[in-house]
Amino acid sequence: MDDILLRTENLGKDYRLGPQTVHALRDVSISVRRGEFVAVMGPSGSGKSTFMNLLGCLDRPTTGHYFLDGRDVSQLSRDELARTRNRKIGFVFQSFNLLPRTTALDNAALPMTYGDYPRRERRDRAREVLADVGLADRTHHVPAQLSGGQQQRVAIARALITRPALLLADEPTGAIDTRTGLEIMALFQRLNRDGLTIVLVTHEPDIAEFAQRVLHFRDGRLMDDRLAASPPLAEDVLASMPEEGGAEA
Ligand code: ADP
Ligand code: MG
């Protein structure tokens, strides 16, 4: 199997805005190997979300190529893109995007309801991924009965249920407190150790430091691509923090 999971070649994205053209992404060439954990940083408007939308097969580039798992997906039709996305990619967002009146179990199972899976298999697999993110005892809770961190775990379970090759996370710790953010990073690090390739957008250096590699964007360009010598373990940072409740003091 090819060691490279994704590769972009002079990738660019323009948006037409009336008479204006916005060059949201310019000339980005990059490779990510299977099993890497990459953080994407850069100021607001630097093209991070545009880059993630292209990696996630949510949108097509204006110029250049995107190879995912060995296949050029830059010019696929909308339907083919959607199929590729459902098979290969899991998404996690800042705002969790859970269905409010739906249990953790059914939220996690959602991506499988679009496939041809028997109900039994769907529920078994949803229980399995919820257990994997530490929520075995919360399967029948609806989002309002869960903390922010637990809701994000449900969203991560939902992203993992189809066993994607790539997990994309856009500011996954943006809406939760510091300790909970560290717990989410510890979970990502564990999933990554188990082989999952992760690309995560964050504007917080304290979050990016847990990745093995950090990309910096500015004005739609990739300005910096750096490997971390030995990223700290979020678990260790958590263990060295004062106990719950003392954290805010
Ligand atoms: P970031 O995620 O780093 O904040 P974005 O990728 O969202 O940046 O945006 C990059 C640039 O492209 C910005 O100048 C933004 O205003 C512009 N842009 C993003 N999406 C659109 C769109 N749908 N139409 C027009 N311009 C857009
Ligand atoms: Mg953004």
Task: Describe the structure in your own words.
With 249 residues, the chain is an alpha/beta fold. Helix content is 33%, strand content 28%. It is built from eight helices and ten strands. The protein has helices at residues 48-55, 78-88, 104-113, 119-132, 148-160, 178-193, 205-208, 234-239, and strands at residues 4-17, 20-33, 37-41, 63-68, 71-72, 89-93, 166-170, 197-201, 213-218, 221-227. The strands form two sheets. It has a six-stranded mixed β-sheet. α3 (104-113) packs across α4 (119-132), α3 (104-113) packs parallel to α5 (148-160) and α4 crosses α5. The radius of gyration is 18 Å and the shape is globular. The chain binds adenosine-5'-diphosphate and magnesium ion. Residues 48-49 line the site of magnesium ion (MG).
Quick tags:
249 residues; alpha/beta; 6-stranded mixed sheet; globular; binds adenosine-5'-diphosphate
Quick recap:
By secondary structure, the chain is of the alpha/beta class.
Determine the fraction of residues in helical runs and give it as a percent range. 25-40%
Order of helices and strands: EEEHEEHEHHHEHEHEEH
Shape, principal axes of CA atoms = globular
* N-end to C-end Cα span: 51 Å
Mean pLDDT: 94
Please give the number of β-strands.
10
